[in-house]
Predict the 3D structure of the following.
Amino acid sequence: DAGVTQTPRHEVAEKGQTIILKCEPVSGHNDLFWYRQTKIQGLELLSYFRSKSLMEDGGAFKDRFKAEMLNSSFSTLKIQPTEPKDSAVYLCASSRVLNERLFFGHGTKLSVL
Amino acid sequence: GQQVQQSPASLVLQEGENAELQCNFSSTATRLQWFYQHPGGRLVSLFYNPSGTKHTGRLTSTTVTNERRSSLHISSSQTTDSGTYFCEGQQGTGSKLSFGKGAKLTVSP
């Protein structure tokens, strides 16, 4: 696939820090998703953007998690303040429109000490 | 929202055996996709298949939309097929995507 780019690949944070994860969707894609993946919970939706507009914000993740899409080719996920339970792999995905194939990035593995 | 049930949760096979993975949805899925994830790797799309049957290599996906189920068949499994398989579905056009918990496949030589 053309590739969704996520940076960094790994992030280590102290409890209470602010971290920002970055995602570049596939060029021309209008829909962008942020997911969190853990062994226990599986894949949990954090945010969903359609044409840069926030469509879903993942409910339970609202208080310390904020995703933004400043332009069609770049999105950030801010976690503030981080807690050890936030340790997980954070995945970004994009699709051209909602009923077409979804492409994932490699993810950012976050460890909060 | 859409609930997705995957079965089995895990499967162990000998190389050469066939595998059948199932997904059941609480509502008719207007979009449906199967993914593969190698341990530590990214999710790779295998099929986008909201209805009908699709083949690629040793993989076949069959979705019966009005029965709210989809299957992924792997024929003549190989050790490189080991990993976790996820199905994802969406109800309607505005709902969030829902993933199954995944099916962990282990293929032994």
